[in-house]
Amino acid sequence: MSHRGPLMIASEVLQDLTPIETPKAEPIRMRTLVHLRWFAIGGQMAAVVVAWSMGIGFPKTPIILLIAASITMNLWLFLRPPKRTSAGRAVGQLSFDLVQISTLMALTGGMANPFALLVLAPVTIAAASLNARQVLALGLATVALISVAAVFGVPLREPGGEILRMEPILALGHWVALVIGVVFFAGYAHRVTAELSDTSGALFATQMALSREQRLQHLGGVVAAAAHEMGTPLATIKLIAGELADELKDDPDLHADAIALRVAADRCAAILRSMGRAGKDDLHMRAAPLRAVLEDAAQPHADRGPLIEIHAQGPIVRRDPAIIHALRNLIQNAVDFAESRVVIETQVTQGALVVTVRDDGPGYPVQLLSRIGDPYLTRRAEAQRGSYEGMGLGLFIAKTLLERSGARLTFANGGPGAVVSVRWPLDRIRAEDRIALAHNPNFEP
């Protein structure tokens, strides 16, 4: 059985900290397009059979050939399915459906066809799965084919041979309605899908941020164990170096080397003691004073320019990686936009704990206040300074993690800059003063 020491485990944790890109899914699965086309084929065949049984006159041969073309396409995709659906292949399939449906509409009365609305299906599917340029191309093609069908449509005939006509004003209104439908359905579906995709990507980034924070804490424990295990061999090196220095007093060069070796061993021991203390803090502390948690969250931004003032008096709270990471994001955002000062204040009421982070910068754009916390929001810097890149995602991650911990966030201006308040029910954030420590990890040499 193999033995894994703390250094090997630390290497594995560091590998886990490698940035992970958001996975990119297929635009739309080919199987989905095939299933949708089978439904369309069934509906087209049913309409042909019903119209034929009612004695309505229409060009039967070309219509049957068009339906047969769709059946052939589906059978070909079933027998030779592509391994992966690319955006170009999806555009090709939807273009085929668009041409087929538009031609059917033109051969069955044009604007007088009660099923003309189905011509909007391909562009709506495209809007939910493809990029804006491809949706625009299919939308323009849809409008062009609708217009051709309206002008050159073959009229239907009643059983007695009379032509079924639509009043010109009604035909024009139907055409306008279809064009509006192209714009509305495509635009709406594309916007909703884009927002869902942004939210999904932001949630993935949130999960990665929390996972990274937890792994870093685990790495702290591994460092503590490594520092403990390396203490003994370093003590041996120091002892031998001291003895060599005493024995080599007659040789100045070797004596100086032995002294240097002992000094280096002392320095390594000091570094390991520091690492061991930090690692033990990260691994074992499940609760801490409120001020200590806020100082931990603010520490990475302490030397970035603006002065960070912490005015905090409060209870012992949970030392949760998610809470610390979220507060760190809020403090980072304040530091990024502060002119000279960021103030972190706390207030404890009978049933709640409130943490307020305020800066003296330009504040949030008024038009975006209601949307603060949404992913990939228009950046405050673009509206105010034009330099900083990336407000929306960090605030979304902070808001998501804090809300999962039971907090409620409010964003406002005044102070004089931006102000964000985080409010927890005390029973969701308070921890016991003498909470038990976690178990020490076992490492085999």
UniProtKB/TrEMBL annotation:
Gene Ontology MF terms in the entry: ATP binding; phosphorelay sensor kinase activity
Domain of life according to the entry: Bacteria
SMART domains, per database record: HATPase_c
Keyword Nucleotide-binding recorded: yes
Gene3D superfamilies: 1.10.287.130, Histidine kinase-like ATPase, C-terminal domain
UniProt keywords, alphabetically: ATP-binding, Cell membrane, Kinase, Membrane, Nucleotide-binding, Phosphoprotein, Transferase, Transmembrane, Transmembrane helix
Cited InterPro entries: 2C_sensor_his_kinase, HATPase_C_sf, HATPase_dom, His_kinase_dom, HisK_dim/P_dom, HisK_dim/P_sf, RegB, Sig_transdc_His_kin-like_C
CDD domains: HisKA
Catalytic activity, as annotated: ATP + protein L-histidine = ADP + protein N-phospho-L-histidine
Assigned GO CC terms: plasma membrane
Descriptive protein name: histidine kinase
Source organism of this protein record: Paracoccus gahaiensis
